[in-house]
Amino acid sequence: SGARLKPGEVAIDYVSGLGGSPEATVVTTDIVTSAVNAALANAMFGHADETDDFHPFTKAHPGCSVVPAAFAMAEREGSSGMEFIRAVTLGYDLSCRFLIALKPDLVRANQRSAEGYSSTFGATAAAASIARFQEMEMRYAISYAAQQVSGVWSWVRDEEHIEKAFDFSGMGARNGVSVVTMVQAGFTGVADALEGERNIFDALSPDPAPEEIVAGLGSRFYIEETAIKTFPVGYPIQSPLDAFFTLLNEHRFTVDDVKRVLIRLPEDGARIVDNRSMPDVNAQHILSVALVDGYIDFNNSHSYERMSDPVVAAVREKVELVADPDLVVTDAPRSGFVEETLVDGRK
């Protein structure tokens, strides 16, 4: 579905003009291009519609970068299905483990976007697995990945979801496949970027825990810990929507019955979805659409036209979002609270 949205359309237009060796397919099209280009476009499809998975603790989005990178490299290399599964599993692991070692809250506290960090490392791991890298090749790949990790929180001001799709997925998938194909071509580099002088942990976190990158290695698999979204919207809005529909099913109110809607979210999540320009990443808008329509689906959550719908706009005036520090808890990092005040005084 992401290929039919604006981020997907511009990605297709972009890679179609690049040419490149016919190594991998851009899905939903007849374009066969380099693995790097295919990974970029397919990854942007993966995050364009906000239906990709996420890891609740780190808030990483492994699937939208790791899977396209693995697909592109697997097609290039003629890999087996089992090699693909192993590559994706490793990619998920490194995507999450890298952020845990950096401590994701510390990364974001410095106005950095941790999603760009995790996607590059996860995609690099997946692509390197497909390429069957040995130890020294993997060391070089890690060093080149370390030089490419980037991202700042300015993506929340993106108005068309195009940069967000690139920042969260396209960039990381492109970086990872680029890294691996460069090393395959003979690029050498630093062999100890994780632990040597001026290493990546010290550079990116004020209080890293590098031992966490291997904690439970081989017994804890992060691909088993990611969450699939119930609704095609940004992950901080998942819990409020679930709470809203629970209340709607129990009390059967209509839009005319509601006087006020209060949403409380953890502070980091509230900052992401507070009256943003993208409809599917705007908590006040999505709750308003849910109240007017009685449901949320792909079409009404992604419609920019509904942002200016006077009926939805009037309801949005009733919706208040509060960043609640008491909801910032490790055991429930994506919690939410919704309170409906009805015109008859009931709450």
UniProtKB/TrEMBL annotation:
Stored SUPFAM superfamilies: 2-methylcitrate dehydratase PrpD
Gene3D superfamilies assigned to the protein according to its UniProt record, in alphabetical order: 2-methylcitrate dehydratase PrpD
GO terms of molecular function: lyase activity
Alphabetized InterPro entries for the sequence: MmgE/PrpD_sf, MmgE/PrpD_sf_1, MmgE/PrpD_sf_2, MmgE_PrpD, MmgE_PrpD_C, MmgE_PrpD_N
Domain MmgE/PrpD C-terminal stretches: 231-345
Domain MmgE/PrpD N-terminal: 2-211
Family: Belongs to the PrpD family.
Protein's name in the database: MmgE/PrpD family protein
Organism: marine metagenome
The organism's taxonomic lineage, starting at the top: unclassified sequences, metagenomes, ecological metagenomes
